[in-house]
Amino acid sequence: MTSAQRDPSSSILSVLEELSVTWRRGGPPTLLTISHRPPKPTVPAVLANGVDGDGPLELLAHWLEQCRRHRGIGNTQRDLGVDAVAVSGEIDGQHLGYAMDRTGREYLVRGQRHGTERHRSSGTDVAARTHLPALLTERLAELVWRLAGPPPPAAGSRIRDMWPTAGLIDLDEDELHERYALPSPTEGHVRLVAVSSIDGLAAVDGSSAALTSSGDQRVYRLIKRDADLLLLGANTVRAEQYGQTALSAPEIARRRANGLPSYPAVAVVTRSLDLDLSGPLFQPSIGGHGQPRPILIVPAAAAAGASTAVAEAAELLVAGDYNVDLNQAIQLLRQRGHRRIVCEGGPALAGQLAQADLLDEICVTITPQLLAVAGPRITAGPAGRPAGGQWQLHRSLLDEQGNLFLRYTRPGPSGRADGPPTV
Prior knowledge:
Layout: H1 10-22, E1 31-34, H2 45-48, H3 56-69, H4 71-79, E2 84-91, E3 94-101, E4 106-112, E5 119-123, H5 126-129, H6 134-147, E6 159-163, H7 173-179, E7 189-197, H8 214-225, E8 229-233, H9 234-240, H10 249-257, E9 265-269, E10 295-298, H11 300-304, H12 308-313, E11 315-318, H13 326-335, E12 340-343, H14 347-355, E13 361-367, E14 392-399, E15 404-409
Parallel strand pairs: 1-2, 7-12, 7-13, 8-9, 8-12, 9-10, 10-11
Antiparallel strand pairs: 2-3, 3-4, 4-5, 6-14, 13-15, 14-15
Helix pairs in contact: 3-4, 3-6, 6-10
């Protein structure tokens, strides 16, 4: 690792200058540079040996191979406080310095090798806009994830353990991920994620925005990031103006390294197909990794009357005749390879999943608010027999604003409810 202020390479110098201008996280950024060009001491010998070629793609591939084999390399660089990683070399006859920080922001400086003119650019899609190989971004993003790690938590979102062991230290992203990790291999797992006030309110005016916090968003984002599929009811999509999941390049790299697609799929349970096709969920993907088309889970009666516009905007998954059969829907989703399903609500859908005994886990945030107004709970259903099954507390955590994070799991297999659930 070097400070690029001492690196005579003009490209790396320019990258650091561009990085320093936009850096907003306190203190000067620490840049790790990879290059076969002088000064060679910037590349540790263990990483410099055996590289076939000295282009950026080859250099990044060699670093990744070493990092995957030797976990200590990444731990060492994180301990040293790496904020961004840069690679220097030639592509298509131009010399470039290309960097990425922990948030996924890219910094590119390019120009003729022996010329003095340099073109700078920065942003979240620099490589795509300048027609650099997508593989270059993918490899650099994975290296940033492994060597620099995630950005620090936002103000107010530091989280510590409460139970089964109380902790006095702040959990970093890897430690928090471990607290919510699912058993592997996962044959099929449905996880409900929700937020509630002290008095049990799950939404105000149809939205959970008044209940959430930076700590809640941190946990919510982590759970979504590790999902195969996000499951929602149509009312939630309408009320929340729900859109596609935004992930940074390092977060995408982490998913891909763990055998997941770049983005989780999104499935909406709807009996009537009453959805705004101009809404955020149905907008074209932006960036180098295309997001999958939304899946609309509908009964056969609704599918038969679906318009051409609906078929173009989303994929239809038929489950049930006149109402959505959730048992069949979950089975079909699992057959497609969606083993880690996260239900984000709303209450009606969560209640139907509970009544059908389809939930394996509940992750709920109790926010320190007493609202004392009418509103829904995290589940809703008709009057009658309560949902069965026993739950046990798996873990609890607390953030610095007093939000309590509870993770409940099933103690073991249980019988399923009689009859097909419908919504």
